[in-house]
Fold:
Amino acid sequence: MSKFLNQKISSLTPYEPGEQPKQREYIKLNTNESPYPPSKKGLELASEQAEICHLYPDPNCTELTKLLASELGVKENQVILTNGSDEILNFAFMAYCDQDTPAVYNDITYGFYKVYAKLHGVESKVLPLKEDFSIDIDAFIKEKGTIIIANPNAPTGLLLSLEQIEKIVKSNPDRVVVVDEAYIDFGGESAVKLIDKYDNLLVTQTFSKSRSLAGARLGFGVANEKIISDLMRIKYSTNPYNVNRLTSAMGMGAILDKDYFEKNCNHIINNRQQTKVELEKLGFYVTDSKANFLFAKSNKIDGKNLYLKLKEKGILVRHFDTDRIREYIRITIGNSTQMQAFISAIKEILEEL
Ligand code: PMP
Structure:
């Protein structure tokens, strides 16, 4: 840190992304990426765009916005595209939290929320999940700040129904509710269908997981047109070219190649179910995840040791060394071969104990 850094930034604890080691080939089940490559259609469109990369991209993402809006069944002015969904979440904190409006979120949830709150100097009201990691809906209803809920939640994978989300959104029309649907395509019902009914709802989604584009960085927000115009003000005050030509093209391909998207989601859902059953046979407790990962704890070995032993065997999973979830590991769902290798490694580790 240099001596010039201001107090606000020097006091931050930045978000810690999952490790991306280069020393050896790992089976990577630690950052919730898709095991399947991006759609070929996207590659074709991106190679056309690569040839004109001397020109800035369209800041309005006109074509992609049109296509995405029609896919979602909303109007074009109800969508904003961003550099990953991390960016739209950042915009939401900038737009809807301040000294008088804290950010309200759960104790066990996506780790970036607390970083954004700190970055923007706003208070966090942290609501504990219940003992079984389910979300206490009534606790959210009582709070006055801007609510941020990951649905399905991460790293637990637990899903709220659309009715439960609606109850929270409806309970206080004077505050914004952000529903972070990064993992919604793996078994949840999106709140996008509520945006015309509630002007305080912002739904965020990503192309990083179900559409195999984590490396391209593409996310979006869907909301009432006034919310979108607020967020556009931020986009045009920070980086109007936040979505580059290649990414836009890859995103178009991912939407157009609907069969590929649906097939991949189904593979993940099936692999998730099979892996859950295998883990349960081996004495694990596994939450009822509706995301592209499982959250599991063994009755024989603690989370940290299991993470380390898997790493020795060339398999990376995520372990969070924080209260309430230390016993658990989070396993991204990969392809069938990767999941078989994971289960074999777990069996070996348990036998070696
Ligand atoms: N929300 C949640 C709950 C996540 O787990 C992630 C992935 N780390 C994101 C948002 C951000 O994903 P991206 O920026 O790749 O869209």
Remarks:
- The first strand starts at residue 27 and ends at 28.
- The chain is about 40% helix and 15% strand.
- The radius of gyration is 20 Å.
